[in-house]
């Protein structure tokens, strides 16, 4: 990996390209609330602490590696520009070569709201076109509630979302999120979840 290179000139959020298909809209609302509480006069300092890691890709486009929810939240709050941190320059690659490289580095997540893998062409070309996956929101809320620990595994919340998708009914997530979260908290402690990143369930006795 090349040396990280902060770009001190602000980059338009609308020019950033996602590397995943979905986000959790409830997560976006949480980020918007956080921005309204910590933005204002402290906005520049907040943005300085939340630079967006990106990869330069074909046609001089910046591809987001993390903080998709924050980018969408700031865009929805009419923030135009954000600072980015360049992780690697892949502008010399052809489009298909670029996506294969990204996929092999676990730097993209081409899965839809049903947990099905899609083609790289289905990844939206702009932050505003990211689609909602309610289970990603459930996984995010589960982590904040202490259901699992923050982990460095790429797309760890999406991994938890897939675990929950097969165990919590969609209607419950849509219509009674609090009950869905309570169900998720119980599922997070189960031995069946012990393979998941950040699992902090009970340790079985010797």
Write a brief structural summary.
This protein is an alpha/beta fold.
Description of the molecule:
With 206 residues, the chain is an alpha/beta fold. It has two domains: 5-132, Conserved hypothetical protein from pyrococcus furiosus pfu- 392566-001, ParB domain (Alpha-Beta Complex), CATH 3.90.1530.10; 134-193, Helicase, Ruva Protein, domain 3. The chain contains eight helices and six strands. The strands form two sheets. It has a four-stranded mixed sheet, with no helix packed on it. Strand 3 (52-57) and strand 4 form a beta hairpin. Helix 1 packs across helix 3 (68-76) and helix 5 (134-144) packs across helix 8 (177-188). The longest helix is centred in the first third of the chain and has 14 residues, at 25-38. The termini are far apart. The model has no long low-confidence stretch (mean pLDDT 93).
Q: Helix share of residues?
A: 25-40%
Summarize the biggest pleated sheet: 4 strands, mixed
Give me the number of helical elements: 8
Overall pLDDT confidence: 93
Q: Tell me the quaternary state.
A: single chain
How do the strands line up in the largest sheet?
1-5-3-4
> If you consult CATH, what is the topology of the largest domain?
Conserved hypothetical protein from pyrococcus furiosus pfu- 392566-001, ParB domain
CATH superfamily of the largest domain: Conserved hypothetical protein from pyrococcus furiosus pfu- 392566-001, ParB domain
Q: Spans of 5+ residues with little confidence (pLDDT < 50)?
A: none
